[in-house]
Amino acid sequence: MGSLPAHTTPADARKILENRAREAGFDLVGVTGAEPLEEGGERLREWQEAGMAADMGYMQRPVGLLSNPKKLQKSARSVVSLGVSYYPGEHPENPGGGRVARYAWGRDYHEIIKERLYRLRRELEQELGTRIKARAFTDAVPLLERSAAQKAGLGFFGRNSCLINGEIGSYFFIADLIVDLHLPPDPPGTGTCGRCTRCMDRCPTGAIQAPGVVDARRCISYLTIENRGEIPRHLRPLVGDWAFGCDICQEVCPYNKTKASRSPWPEFGAASGAGPYLEIEEVLEIRTDEEFEKRFAGTPLTRPGREGLLRNCCVSAGNLGLRELVPALARCLREDPSPLVRGHAAWALGEIGGDAAIKVLRGGAEDDAWCLREIEAALRNADRSASVG
Ligand code: B12
């Protein structure tokens, strides 16, 4: 088990950690013990039992695993929780693209943050003069990171379930260093949403079922990132122009309106990755996984895979009513190897409507049963708007 040299008190070690973490670019630093996260575990159990984890298999793992840092590292004594702002600014007015959630404008945060975490560990080892056994990660292992971060003092749970920090809002990643050192724990994070319910009122799909409880099955972030299947037809119009993730419950939060300041990490800026909008036509032309991987390598946008991202871009095109995309959607409907993409392309054509779209919908040679149902529904939709118009 790691121990501090005789001349260093736990309080000294805590101060050194704070200084090195800030130098490494972390905005928030806190420590909690490595005991199980009991309240978080209880909430997780209820959430799982209500089916709110949707199809995320990794969130259906046993509560005792997800809520116990010692399952990740036997010798764990403290969890160092760190916050790093990713706020890249506000979306400019939509030029007709697929909207990307702010956390994904730049490079993939997983590797970038992990590297800095291990560097932080090395610096601590040098300065403290002791070996530290550590596990470093962000959003990559089975642990309730928000619960650990709240216990470590990084912020409080907002009604949108995000961890909110009174000084910087909620546009920050949580990163963790589980260490075998005993460090003095911080008091848990406190704060309140007061009477504000904007996030609950403004979520287009009504995903926030109760304060702090998000039903993934309705959350646009889940539907466009983690979901591998169709976006349920009744939810598609509510997804709006979001093509990857969603920030609405954070955008409307008063803490973010007044406290969010741009992340100093250039990796998270729009210039380093996909930026605030995807060019829908360009995405709709990607026909192979290799091409897709090459186009989005090193960004978070690889997560839903080619089919998922094209599915989302079809939905954005339909909701934006982009007539100029009828030819690209027609090519998807005729040529894309994936029924998932073809079915959503049909839906978008139905939403856009007009003679050209109807002609495409009538003229196909589809043989997939689900796609055929999508085409029929799209034709009903397009015909209905034609007769109303
Ligand atoms: C699964 C997951 C998702 C799912 C489900 C989200 C959800 N709310 O559960 C989906 C795909 C929808 C999602 C979306 C997003 N995610 Co996500 N996601 C995760 C993941 C992997 C697990 C979250 C989880 O445990 N959910 C289960 C439920 C039960 O837990 P919970 O919502 O956190 O609720 C906790 C509270 O209720 C808490 N609690 C305990 N006591 C109390 C007391 C009170 C009074 C209250 C209210 C709550 C409370 O206990 C619960 C368990 O910890 C974490 C990484 C990790 N390993 O922790 C990232 C993580 C939560 N996601 C993150 C981000 C950035 C996002 C998005 C903003 C991305 C985007 N822009 O599209 C959205 C935000 C949507 C939202 N409002 O949550 C960050 C959040 C950082 C922050 N400041 O909070 C995390 C921590 C990743 C990271 N390492 O930075 N995500």
What does this structure look like?
The chain has a domain at 1-88 and 106-215 and 244-275. It contains 17 helices and eleven strands. It has helices at 10-23, 38-49, 63-66, 109-128, 145-151, 198-202, 220-226, 236-239, 248-251, 254-259, 280-284, 289-296, 305-320, 326-335, 339-352, 355-362, 369-388, and strands at residues 28-33, 78-85, 98-100, 134-137, 156-157, 163-164, 172-179, 208-210, 213-214, 242-244, 277-278. The strands form four sheets. The protein has a four-stranded antiparallel sheet with strand order 1-2-7-4, with helices on both faces. Helix 14 runs antiparallel to helix 15, helix 15 (339-352) packs antiparallel against helix 16 and helix 15 packs parallel to helix 17. The model has no long low-confidence stretch (mean pLDDT 96). It binds cobalamin. Cobalamin binds at residues 39-40, 43-44, 47, 56, 59, 101, 103, 138-139, 143-147, 157, 160-163, 170, 172-174, 211-212, 214, 216, 219, 221-222, 225-226, 245-247, 249.
- What helical percentage do the residues reach? 40-55%
Beta percentage is 5-15%
* Spans of at least 5 consecutive residues with low confidence: none
The radius of gyration computed from the alpha-carbon positions, rounded to a whole number of angstroms, is: 23 Å
**What is the strand arrangement across the widest sheet?**
1-2-7-4
Instruction: Outline the biggest β-sheet.
Output: 4 strands, antiparallel
Q: Tally the beta strands.
A: 11
